[in-house]
Amino acid sequence: MTLLLFLLRRAATLVVVTLVSSFLVFSLMELAPGSPLSFLLGNRSATPEQVALVTEQYHLDDPFLVRYGAWLGDVLHGDLGRSIAYKQSVTDLLSTRVTTTLLLVGYAGIIITIVGVGLGVLAGSRPGRLDAALTALTTGFLAVPAFVSGVVLIWVFAVQLGWFPAFGGGHGLLDRLRHLTLPAVALSLASSAYLARITRAAVQTQQQAEHVETARSRGLQGGYVMRHHVVRNSLIPITTVLGLTIATLIAGAVVVESVFALDGIGSLLVQAILRSDFVVVQAVILVLVVAFVLVNTLVDIVYTMVDPRISLTAGTGR
Amino acid sequence: MSALTTNPATAATAATGRLRPRTRLRSAAGLLGVPGLLAVGFLVLVAVVAVAAPLLAPADPNFPAPLEAYASPSGAHLMGTDALGRDLLSRLMYGARVAILASVAIIALSTVVGTAVALVSAWVGGVVDAFVSRVLDILFAVPGIIFALAAVSVMGPGPTGVVLGLTLGYTPYVARVVRGATLREVRMDYVDAAWLQGRSGVAICLRHLLPNLRPLIIAQAVSSLGFALIDLSALSFLGLGVQPPAADWGLTMRAGLDSALRGHVGEAVSAGLCLGLLVASVIVLGDRLSKQAEERA
Amino acid sequence: MSMLTIEDLRVRVRSRDGMRTIVDGVTLDIGRGEALGLVGESGSGKSITARTVLGLFPRGADVTGRIEVDGEPVLGASRRSLTALRSRKVAMIFQDPRAHINPVHRVGDFLTEALRKHLGMDRAAAARKAVGLLADVGIADGERRLRQYPHELSGGLLQRVMIAAAIAIEPDLILADEPTTALDVTTQSEVMAILGDLRRERGMAMLFITHDLELAAATCDRTAVMYAGQIVECQSSRTLPDRPLHPYTSGLLGSRPSIEAAVRRLPVIPGRPVAAFETGAGCSFAGRCPMVEDRCRIEAPATVRRTEGAVACHRNEELVGALPSEPTVRSADV
């Protein structure tokens, strides 16, 4: 019952946030210099038919709010407009590319969770040289942007060693994963380092915690105490950070997809901006914002499972 | 009750103010530690190079010499040349200017705006604060680079849109952190005492709260500087920020990608190292400052 | 044969200013089924002493002396025998159950953890035993409590859970580190009563750490008083409240509020308590002692075994029966 209520509340928030952000994204067009028509056309010379099409589709003759309402109605029906540069429906453009981005972010997310939490626990539980070395290593990786590590990875593993392809998405699941390995590694390096630092700090704090002293005083073995008390309780800060990290990954995909010439929605966004294809820009940004809010909601739900002290009814309390 | 009369921050500054400059320098060095000192050293080096690039650069960063493309490091070109035969070292030196100027502008702007929003929100409280904190929570979930992409899509590719967008994107980070700290600070006795002495809200915010929050705000700003540097050069890398033929690390990296595929890794490695070392220095310094701000609180 | 023997225990811990002595030559002995109260102010080293019995001390601590539980040495013991000690022989009850019980696991997990790990019980059997244990500490609806999380229970209930967890492994010795300090007054007496009854029923020995001299004397067979890392006095709880042997004990007794004698202002022991590393050459209490003599400042007193009890004071002979045990009313205060 409380779970249902909680989910309803979160869903309501989700709807409100999405509405507000859709309004902001739509208003972007108004902020641009020049008339919405020329902006939408990207300052291209257009045939009268194109002008009529865009005018009709965006209800450019109507007042702003009416235009927004009409656009929102279309979006809710799955119609995100028609790309002027690609001469294709935006929904179709997106649907083929979303999978690539999801695979990339998912792949990187798995790497980050394993490497980040693993290294963090290792560093946090073994003070001394290993900890110092790992801390230096994570500071280093934290400072390397994804596009730098991407280029280095291409040079080493694609150009020099030839183990992985430098570009493209591949076909079939296995081939796709092979193509996505270097991009996923590039995307996950900095975030893994960040998560490792957070995990290390949490593990160190938990090892000093009183309840861990209780567990030791009861003769429970080191490995068991580590898993069931130290790492288990460290999951609380880790979850908080993981949510932000996944949002960062989605944004990072924009860059990484461009480095590795992957057909994802990130590289589509960059192309659309460069080609002044505003209809596509609007759609992709909307999709990204909804993704961020969804991830946040998911993290909030996971959070209540990780920390029983946070009640479902009292909101997140983070 | 000593909190009524002494403001910890002013007491601390008064204490350090009495120290002789040399002692003060030494105590600062002690607080930073070896990694912190190395970081500060590298930051100073980059800043000097950026300011004095026209004096220090061995060649014109934009002078092309197609016949000398991809020259190896030599007396004439200490770090070799790029695909167009331009002197790589000179381009990196001029690139430091863009990186530092733009990232500092982003952080300065977002810190001022974010701090103002946070102070007003936390001080006024009630509905205003509830609303502001909700909005911040939502904006916080959206990475800064998305704001920059939106800004660039409206204003067109170029540094102006990028700086404005990233400023907008970084403001919620600042505001959230400062708001949290302000709420803790407002509960302190000295604020009540100042209030009872008849000080105005603005005066308390500026004369008492702000000085106490300063270490935290500075630490936060330094830490964010690293992320701003990364986002900034990423946008140039994507072709949405600084435009060619200007010298910029992100652009050098983009050219480095094409060169790497042709077997020349010099540009990518050198620009990547410049960026990585600068960001690492900023992160190390930010960590140190955060630790000190925490210990103080 | 005694249950717990501690001989000349010294503990030094690492700090910013080098190694600091926290426990400075503690010697004590607890018989089977006997309860010993160890009384001292915060920083006197009493909690560290209790933890050392389980081989729990901070990283880099320097521990010397001899500790034996049931004849088995603790210091320098192998990991295996330490585990055996902690899992079967000795159980500890901590001061703050809110902090000392993992907040993310259910009460049932906490109670059955040791049963499953050490006694090899399956989940169902351990749960049945846990319900029984909860009944023993006066919690009737055990089934429901097992499914609850620690934050859903009051402090008093939670401390009973901690006691139930301690007796679960049927230990021979219980170390209770201020088990009632974090609780409110009415709950304190309930928890103490439960602890006392269970201990007597099952014949468990107890080292009871507290800062409350009266509580120790009321609950334990013997009471030891600790000051600056040393035990200054130890005698039967029956005689201690009326016939303190050490001026510090006398001061503690004198500074408690009393119902019978209405005193305007309670006398206090002048000065502040010191830790072991702050003491000089002489008696550690010399700086605050009303009975101080010249030699107290120069030479540390040895512990003397008298018929009345053990005491570490140069003037013990002349002070027996002469030290006040009630608040002394000074004319200036009236």
Plain-language structure description:
Chain B: This is ABC transporter permease. Chain B: Keywords: Cell membrane, Membrane, Transmembrane, Transmembrane helix, Transport. Chain B: It is a multi-pass membrane protein. Chain B: Its main location: membrane. The complex is a heterotrimer of chains A (318), B (297) and C (334). Chain A is an all-alpha fold and 318 residues long. Chain A contains twelve helices and two strands. Chain A has a two-stranded antiparallel sheet. The longest helix of chain A has 38 residues. The radius of gyration of chain A is 24 Å and the shape is globular. The C terminus of chain A is likely disordered. With 297 residues, chain B is mainly alpha-helical. Chain B is built from eleven helices and no strands. Chain B is elongated. Chain C is an alpha/beta fold and 334 residues long. Chain C contains twelve helices and twelve strands. In chain C, 44% of the residues are buried. Chains in contact: A-B, A-C. The interface between A and B is large, with 48 and 42 residues.
In short:
The complex is a heterotrimer of chains A (318), B (297) and C (334). Chain A contains twelve helices and two strands.
What characteristics describe this protein?
heterotrimer, A: 318 residues, mainly alpha, MetI-like fold, two-stranded antiparallel ribbon, 12 helices, 2 strands, 76% helix, globular, disordered C terminus, C: 334 residues, alpha/beta, eight-stranded mixed sheet, four-stranded antiparallel sheet
